[in-house]
Fold this sequence. Notes:
Elements (H helix, E strand, L loop, with lengths): L4 E9 L3 E10 L4 E10 L4 E2 L2 E2 L2 H19 L5 E6 L5 E10 L7 H12 L7 E5 L5 E4 L2 E3 L9 E12 H12 L4 E7 H9 L2 H6 L1 E6 L4 E7 L2 E8 L4 H11 L3 H11 L17 H10 L3 E3 L10 E3 H25 L10 E4 L8 H9 L3 E3 L18 H16 L11 H12 L1
Parallel strand pairs: 1-6, 6-12, 13-18, 18-19
Antiparallel strand pairs: 1-2, 2-3, 4-5, 7-11, 8-11, 9-10, 9-11, 13-14, 14-15, 16-17
Helix pairs in contact: 1-3, 4-11, 6-7, 6-9, 9-10
Amino acid sequence: MSRKRETxxxxxxxxxxxxxxxxxxHVSGQTRILGYGSTPTQGAVNFGAIQDINLATSxxxxxxxxAQRMANMRVHSLYCGIQGKTLDSRISDGKVExxxxxxxxxxxxxxxxxxxxxxxxxxxxxxxxxxxxxxTVDDMRVADPIGMRxxxxxxxxxxxxxxxxxANNLRSCLHSQKKEITEFVYMPLAAAHGCLxxxxxxxGAAVINFGSTSTSVAxxxxxxxxxxxxxxxxxxxxxxxxxxxxKVNFEExxxxxxxxxxxxxxxxxxxxxxxxxxxAQKNNASEERVTIKLHNTATGAPxxxxxSKLNQIIYDRGNQFSGMIAQYLEEQGYTKHLSRGLVVTGGxxxxxxxxxxxxxxxxxxxxxxxxxxxxxxxxxxxxxxxAPTIGIVNYAFAHRRSxxxxxxxxxxxRFAQVKRFLDKYF
Length: 426
């Protein structure tokens, strides 16, 4: 690896697909995608947990091989996204006295360790996130405490308590490919790292990551992480609804959900129809009636469906989910902290008008969150579906910087030039 460039790799074990990204960052700050790969899980992973170790191993091999071939290089370790029912997320505090009054890296490590003790439990270990850390020196909040003087260093940080079972099986999949896991990354935070700007984090925003089997919320304000929450429902429920009611297979149900999305005509307050007569509404519905041909139905099931029926199925589920998110934000008192509104990302954000419905229900400004943090992104991964995986990559670079592993810009002062000359020739 060039001393002027660092390379990282990330893997996301999603319920619908396993995704891998290899990226580089130049000492100047320029970032670039070197390679990426994706393959359907085919049931090998569900809600972040391995369901079939042999199938998962073969799926991982396909995704990694594709990414390495595109990058024209081999990687030996990857940052791995985690999520699932066995995870417990919390924010903990840790403090340490500062010997000699000067904050050093070992003081930060000690504070992290002390905070992690609150998150420990049998058969589990805590996973922290350097990008969610908040530091104070003598009760004064600072962005980076290294080199500052004071008596007491306090750290407020996010921890995810991860089961040994989950960790061991994820490691097993990568060990089979002769790969190691550098660090685990909590996916609700990865989604935020993948699409939130500095302004979002400072002024206040909530990231809604619609996955296939789960939906997460991460709330930020005043440069700090306020909370995370994971719900055990996701975009897969839209597909199951359509498959169950229309008696089509999952593949066709997926195509229908993505093709038609949430109908804009249904996204409106009931009051807007107050002055329309019932007969006028029926006449209008009759004029707009459209029939959809179904291709993969169960034996004896209808081979057509009214578009209005499909629209209602998708809308009802989307309206339910939007209501649950709005209720959570309201009950927890977060709505007043969201000056930048809601940011919808993840695979479920590809369902058309999901953001419009959520904005209508929550009455909070909502937008789609595409991947950020790179000078240029290939079109196939410049989508909401890839934003959480890109977030793992962004975290990886931040983690390496925090550990002093990233290459540093060249010091061109006269003293540094002389020192380099002496080191080279004497």
